[in-house]
Amino acid sequence: MSDTRQLLGIKGGSETTNIWKLRLQLMKPITWIPLLWGVICGAAASGNYHWSISNVLASIACMIMSGPLLAGYTQTINDYYDKEIDAINEPNRPIPSGAISLIQVKIQIWVLLLSGLAVAYGLDLWAKHSTPSVFLLALGGSFVSYIYSAPPLKLKQNGWLGNYALGASYIALPWWAGQALFGQLTWITAILTLAYSLAGLGIAVINDFKSVEGDKALGLQSLPVAFGIKNASYISAGMIDIFQLAMVVVLISIGQNLASVILILLIIPQITFQDIWLLRNPLKYDVKYQASAQPFLILGMLVTALAIGHSSLV
C-alpha cells in the first residue's frame, strides 16, 4: 500500500531509489484525475463531440497534455521551489531526501513543459484552428503554474489567490481546452467555469492542511495558517458547496431542470462527507474525505457540462 502511495505522490508513501519511480512521484499522478475529467467535461460542453476514432484519439491526446505532461510539470516545479517546506513537512519526498539531484529535476521540468506545449500545438493543427487556442491555453496555464510556485510572485504565499489559481488550473483550463478542441469556447462558458473554479478553491484548501507546519515556519499565509485549521475547514466546505449550488441556479435559469435536480442530488453526499471527515479532523481525514466526496463533485461537473452542451450557451 505504501508503495502505491509513493507512486501516486500521496503523503506517507515509501521511499525508493528507482529513478523512474522518483520522477513519477514528483509528477503526483493522483493530481491528474481532475484535469483528465476536465477535458471530458469540456468536450461534453462543446455540444460537438462525436464518437469517432479521430475524436477519441484527439481527446486522449488532450488528456495526456493536461494530466501527465502539464500537471506533471506543475507538480514537479512546485516540488522544486517547495524543497525547504517539504524538508519540514515531507522529508522523504524525492528532492529533500536527496534521492534525485536538482539538475535531474530541472531536466524533467523542461521535458514535461515542452512536450505538453508540442502536443497542444499538434491538437490545434488537428482541429484546423486559425488561432492556436489550445496552445495558448497550455502556454497560459504553464505560466500560471510557474508564478504559483516560483518567486518573486509565488502566488501560493497568498491563501486566497494561490488556491484560486490552483482551482482554476484544475477545473477551468482543462475544460476550456476540451471545449476549444471540439467546438467553440464562449465567454459565457468561460465565466461559468471560472465561477465553478471557486469550488476548486475549496478543494485546494484541503491540500494545505498537510503543509501547515512548514507553511508557518516559512511564513506562507495559506488559509489554514491564516484562519486556523477549524475555520479553514469551514471555508473549504463552504466554497465547495456554495458555488456548486450557484451552478444549480444557472442550470435552472437556462431551462436545464433535470440537470439541476441531479446536481443537487450529487451535492448532498458531499455535504454528508464534509460532516463526517472534513469538519471533524481535516488533518487526519483529508485523504478519506477527498476519496469519498470528490467523485460526486466531478460527476456534478459532467452533468453541468452536458447540460451546457445541450443549451444555447454554446
Structure notes:
With 314 residues, this protein is an all-alpha fold. The chain has one domain. It is built from 14 helices and no strands. Helix 9 (187-208) packs antiparallel against helix 14. It is globular, with a radius of gyration of 19 Å. The mean pLDDT is 92.
Notable characteristics:
globular, 314 residues, single chain, 77% helix, mainly alpha
Instruction: Give the overall silhouette.
Output: globular
By DSSP, the count of extended strands is: 0
Number of domains: 1
- What is the radius of gyration? 19 Å
Task: Tell me the layout of helices and strands.
Elements: H1 2-8, H2 19-27, H3 33-46, H4 53-81, H5 83-89, H6 102-127, H7 133-149, H8 159-182, H9 187-208, H10 212-217, H11 223-227, H12 229-253, H13 257-278, H14 282-309
Helix pairs in contact: 2-4, 3-4, 3-8, 3-14, 4-6, 4-7, 4-8, 6-7, 7-8, 8-9, 9-12, 9-14, 12-13, 12-14, 13-14
